[in-house]
Amino acid sequence: MSRQPANAAEALAWLAWQAEMGADEALEERARDRFAEPPVRIAAPPAPVSVAAPAVARLVAVDEALASARAMAAAAGDLAALKTALQRFEGCGLKATATNLVFADGNPESRVMLVGEAPGAEEDRQGKPFVGVSGQLLDRMLACVGLDRTTAYITNVLFWRPPGNRTPTPAEIAACLPFVERHIALVRPTHLLLLGGMSAKTLLNTGEGILRLRGKWTTLQPGGLDYAVPTLPTLHPAFLLRQPAQKRQAWRDLVAFRAALDKIPSTTRSVGEG
């Protein structure tokens, strides 16, 4: 603390200076030496609320939805039961915002199965896959190789439209996947055509893009199926509408797909004639 004033005159001078600085009111009877006092102990802040709890809850919800999807899909003994299971399934949030379940279209006896990505606005209204502008292009593409909706069976990897056609979340895709795989197992196709990157990456469990995957034959064998299905990824019609220059690549894929179908003995297929 500062030294004491030497005399009354010095003390008065100090008081006058403090008054000029605005310190003209005493708060206590005696001055306190703040430097001599022990430091004030500041209470520790309360423990922060864990931010991991909501994330854990979300993970549990996703796991429960996936377990429910697997159980319900496995229990479906035919396509009608699978559709009913999807109508009862509450583990995919897309269902709450969609107008209709979009299950499938075409002939399940054809043994030719096409799997697209997700329903759009028109598909959501009608409850059928590929009935909008991209569906019209798909019909023309199929007709070029002797196929149509009486000789092919069409579905998607998502059964409900994402709002605003947004990109679906991994959880939404995962919730639908057991039903898609069961769908394939029940139809028992001789050949699969995967339309678009989402379909190819989901069913083939790969991170590669569709421009790398398209045109390359592979096989797919979901649970419940006792053989591996020859599978060809190709470009989605909606992509071709945005990128017309890529139609040449899609045409090559369709020609290769048709050639593979023509190798099947006629007694084991119903895929139309080229």
**Gross morphology:** elongated
Strand order of the largest sheet: 1-3-2-4-6-5
Strand content: 5-15%
Helix content: 40-55%
What's the total helix number?
11
**Largest beta-sheet characterization:** 6 strands, mixed
Main structural class: alpha/beta
Radius of gyration: 35 Å
The helix/strand series, from N terminus to C terminus, equals HHHHEEHHEHEHHEEHH
Secondary structure tally: strands: 6
Mean pLDDT: 88
Structure notes:
With 274 residues, the protein is of the alpha/beta class. Strands 1-3-2-4-6-5 form a six-stranded mixed beta sheet, sandwiched between helices. The longest helix is centred in the first third of the chain and has 24 residues. The protein starts with 7 loop residues before the first helix and ends in a 12-residue tail after the last helix. The relative contact order is 0.12.
What are its keywords?
single chain, 274 residues, alpha/beta, 11 helices, 6 strands, elongated
In short:
The chain has helices at 8-20, 52-75, 79-88, 94-97, 121-126, 133-143, 170-187, 197-204, 210-213, 237-242, 247-262; strands at residues 105-106, 112-116, 153-156, 191-195, 218-220, 229-234. With 274 residues, the protein is an alpha/beta fold.
Topology:
Blueprint: H1 8-20, H2 52-75, H3 79-88, H4 94-97, E1 105-106, E2 112-116, H5 121-126, H6 133-143, E3 153-156, H7 170-187, E4 191-195, H8 197-204, H9 210-213, E5 218-220, E6 229-234, H10 237-242, H11 247-262
Parallel strand pairs: 2-3, 2-4, 4-6
Antiparallel strand pairs: 1-3, 5-6
